[in-house]
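Please fill in the sequence for the structure shown.

STRUCTURE ENCODING:
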């Protein structure tokens, strides 16, 4: 109503004003919030809004108007203690001297615990016998009703909740390896980075349902853990994480490098304090991360800035003193520059199997008490748990590419090492120009070509081998198999089974080319080598998949995995004349014409035309071949739509309308559904190409159509693949050779007689 009510500085923390004096009963009140967000935000905590993604100004979190008595409950902090079976309540009430607190706590099983006449001036304990613990598997919550009583009358009432859960660090049973424990049991943290932007509201979620959908997808993908990345989240998100059972590491937003100074330090500390004050009761939050990759602290120069390192140490210790119920990390580093931390984490982005394997092994080997690795200055490692806090094969700015292949082999490599207690994959969903999520920015789900929970789960079976390789027929493939068992299931006995399947040059399936089984131990809370398997490879070109899985004593599958093996005995003959058929295979580069509206490119053993256009090939028949005795003509090829990039497979696809011609006679028309790229394009990946693949196309010409075309075929003919314009779908064409895509098929024509 035109009168000044108050001011607040900060972009993340909650604030409120008493506007009673400015309002008149039964009259409309006009409330104006004037927000100033300076363009020079170097000293502002802003996270990824600084130099990365779209900025958010104004009111972006939930806003509400509520009546409140003069004497009221300002906040309640509840500290659970599962070891002693109690919860400690710290109730802060304003404008009260001799007030009393009455609390009714309802357990998940419906039982109630009450306290009467407790003073609000000091914290007090509530006994909770046989506590029902909160965990991702069982997110049980205790509901609380708190009344503020003054002179025998209830003047304020608050409803809240808490979870009986404990976060600690302890030693894995039977080892000297330190792990993060939840409720006194080891937990393997299968995490994803969540930058929590969206295309509809940037920082603001459109609805509660959109929050729930993100969290449910998190669980569906197999993750039990999210790192909320340099954004203090909307409280509704935390509410649903509590109720749905998603663990959270919460980053404090950074300021920018040039803004470092007293003002930035004060703002950062105020933001950190406000986050802990507001979010203290959420059982889903298990960790605070003070800084990310030394952003705002000096980047590469941070290692030569002892004053900044000491300020980080001071803030780390302050954070721990404000919240002893959670773990705290000083800095989630990509430059190996911890100062003091409870979690020894590191980042890497590598999209090469051999380099990633060597890197992870190096990190593990350099992690031990007293090591200076991953620490800066004179600081050294203690016995902090080793955890990866960012990894992936596709980094920011690398383009829109498939992640299914690199996610699987990188995660497999991390899980091989018992010393690593968890990981955080980058990331849950794409964001603007960063394309490495399980979902696109609009939350549509990408296709992986396998069940991601196979490798992204507490219990996994692992193959210590490349995700794909080339061997010859007659060779033996050998690899160690390990198990990583971190669910709380106690399995008395288990069986490891393996089976080699394959697909041949004509798309024919081979099942059980070799197989075996062995009894193995299934040891809880350990990573164990359980078997070395040996598989013989039959001769003949095939694309093989080695499947392994573990069954319990009842035959239920506990875990599964796979790798790819190309069995290659050399190229098949270009001209193969047999008693009843002639096969002519042609090389992709040996084309007559390649004319496309948006260009032509090669990608390994793949020829790609974009837009509309045509590829044509001159097919030369053997001397003396009698076309008159031909009864069937077949055209074989692995084909897809053609696009330059290789974004991961997703609906509704990227279709293209293709026509196939011989000497200007139409042989067939087909709509190719997509230009897919995911783990199923294993031949492409094995040969260093992103995992694009196609569908197996077989055109059969016989009877009258065969007569028509044979009249125009003499000693040679022109085979043309064409995408016309205009057409409903003019999305190019990709033709795959025998060593790319999904099938070991060289494009060819077959005359049957």
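FILLED IN BY: designer on duty
SEQUENCE:
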């Amino acid at each position: 109503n035109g009168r000044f009510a108050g001011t607040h500085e900060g972009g993340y923390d909650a604030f409120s004003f008493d506007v009673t004096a400015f309002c008149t009963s039964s009259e409309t009140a006009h409330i104006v919030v004037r927000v100033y967000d300076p363009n020079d935000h170097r000293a502002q905590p802003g996270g990824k809004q600084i130099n990365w993604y779209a900025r958010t100004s104004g009111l972006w979190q939930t806003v509400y108007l509520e009546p409140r008595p003069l004497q009221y409950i300002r906040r309640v902090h509840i500290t659970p203690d599962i070891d002693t079976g109690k919860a400690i309540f710290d109730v802060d009430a304003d404008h009260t001297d001799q007030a009393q607190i009455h609390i009714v706590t309802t357990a998940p099983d419906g039982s109630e615990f009450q306290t009467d006449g407790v003073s609000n001036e000091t914290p007090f304990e509530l006994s909770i016998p046989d506590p029902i613990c909160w965990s991702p598997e069982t997110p049980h919550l205790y509901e609380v009703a708190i009344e503020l009583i003054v002179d025998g009358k209830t003047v304020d009432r608050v409803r809240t909740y808490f979870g009986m859960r404990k976060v600690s660090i302890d030693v894995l049973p039977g080892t000297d390896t330190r792990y993060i424990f939840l409720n006194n049991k080891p937990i393997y943290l299968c995490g994803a980075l969540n930058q929590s932007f969206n295309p509809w509201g940037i920082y603001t979620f459109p609805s509660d349902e959109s929050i729930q959908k993100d969290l449910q997808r998190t669980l569906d993908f197999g993750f039990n853990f999210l790192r909320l990345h340099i954004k203090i989240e909307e409280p509704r998100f935390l509410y649903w994480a509590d109720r749905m059972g998603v663990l959270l590491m919460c980053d404090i937003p950074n300021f920018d490098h040039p803004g470092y100074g007293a003002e930035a330090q004060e703002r950062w500390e105020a933001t950190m304090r406000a986050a802990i004050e507001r979010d203290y009761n959420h059982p889903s939050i298990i960790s605070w991360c003070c800084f990310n990759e030394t952003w705002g602290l000096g980047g590469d120069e941070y290692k030569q800035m002892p004053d900044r390192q000491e300020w980080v140490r001071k803030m780390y210790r302050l954070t721990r003193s404000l919240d002893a119920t959670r773990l705290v990390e000083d800095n989630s580093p990509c430059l190996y520059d911890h100062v003091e931390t409870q979690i020894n984490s590191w980042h890497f982005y590598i999209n090469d199997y051999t380099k990633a394997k060597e890197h992870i092994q190096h990190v593990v080997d350099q992690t031990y008490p007293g090591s200076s690795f991953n620490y800066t200055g004179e600081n050294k490692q203690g016995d902090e748990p080793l955890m990866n806090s960012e990894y992936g094969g596709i980094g920011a700015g690398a383009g829109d590419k498939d992640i299914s292949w690199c996610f699987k082999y990188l995660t497999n490599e991390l899980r091989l090492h018992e010393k690593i207690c968890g990981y955080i994959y980058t990331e849950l969903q794409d964001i603007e120009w960063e394309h490495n999520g399980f979902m696109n920015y609009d939350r549509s789900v990408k296709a992986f070509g396998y069940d991601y929970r196979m490798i992204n789960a507490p219990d996994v079976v692992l193959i210590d081998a490349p995700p794909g390789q080339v061997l010859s027929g007659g060779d033996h493939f050998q690899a160690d198999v390990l198990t990583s068992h971190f669910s709380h299931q106690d399995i008395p006995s288990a069986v490891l089974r393996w089976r080699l399947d394959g697909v041949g040059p004509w798309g024919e399936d081979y099942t059980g080319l070799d197989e075996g089984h062995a009894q193995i131990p299934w040891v809880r809370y350990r990573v164990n080598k359980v078997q070395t398997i040996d598989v013989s490879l039959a001769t003949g070109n095939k694309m093989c998949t080695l499947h392994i899985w573990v069954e319990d004593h009842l035959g239920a599958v506990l875990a599964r995995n796979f790798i790819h093996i190309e069995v290659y005995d050399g190229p098949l003959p270009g001209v193969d004349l047999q008693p009843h058929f002639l096969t002519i295979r042609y090389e992709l580069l040996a084309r007559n014409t390649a004319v496309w509206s948006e260009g032509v490119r090669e990608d390994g053993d793949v020829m790609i035309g974009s837009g509309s256009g045509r590829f044509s090939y001159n097919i030369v028949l053997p001397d003396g071949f009698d076309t008159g005795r031909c009864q069937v003509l077949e055209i074989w090829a692995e084909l897809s739509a053609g696009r330059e990039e290789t974004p991961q497979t997703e609906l509704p696809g990227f279709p293209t309308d293709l026509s196939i011609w011989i000497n200007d006679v139409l042989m067939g028309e087909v709509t190719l559904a997509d230009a897919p790229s995911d783990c199923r394009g294993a031949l492409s990946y094995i040969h260093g190409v992103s995992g694009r693949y196609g569908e197996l196309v077989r055109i059969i010409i016989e009877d009258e159509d065969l007569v028509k075309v044979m009249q125009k075929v003499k000693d040679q003919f022109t085979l043309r693949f064409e995408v016309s314009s205009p057409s409903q779908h003019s999305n190019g064409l990709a033709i795959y050779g025998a060593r790319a895509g999904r099938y070991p098929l060289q494009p060819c024509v077959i005359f049957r007689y």
